[in-house]
Amino acid sequence: MFPVWLQAGFWGLVGGSALLVGAVLGYFVKIPQRAIAAIMAFGAGVLISALSFELMDEAYRRGGFDSTAIGFLSGAAVYTAATWYLNYQGAKHRKRSEELHLLC
After folding, report:
1. Residue 26: its pLDDT value, please?
2. pLDDT, mean of residues 44-56
3. How distant, in Å, are the alpha carbons of 43, 44, 55, 56 from that of 50?
4. 0.70 cut: is pTM over it?
5. Distance CA 78, CA 73 (A)
6. What is the C-alpha to C-alpha distance for residues 60 and 93, in angstroms, rounded to an integer?
7. Nearest-5° Cα angle at 57, 37 to 46
8. Nearest Cα to 13, choosing from 2, 5, 3, 23?
9. How many CB atoms lie within 10 A of CB 71?
10. Exposure of 69 by Cβ count < 10 A (0-12 exposed, 13-18 middle, 19+ buried)?
11. If 87 and its partner were Cys, which of 56, 76, 81, 92 is the partner (CB 3.0–4.6 Å)?
């Protein structure tokens, strides 16, 4: 068996290489914007869900089900209302990536 430090170094290299592989693919391969958007949305969803599960567990242990459910639903409603309002005010057209091609 290999020493623990060598195994840790190997797995660190494997885990870190995903960044380099992604950078090389992004530089040399033309990826459709819809695919990029889907990948980014998935990644953001995974991060948000991981954080939410951890926070929800802590909230449930400290405040019980009722307080946790009310807080969760209230937060979702406020976020949805704010997003709707900002889109209604024109925020949905704020950062379009098509405009970036004109600058390059």
Report:
1. 83
2. 88
3. 11, 10, 9, 10
4. no
5. 9
6. 38
7. 15
8. 5
9. 14
10. middle
11. 92
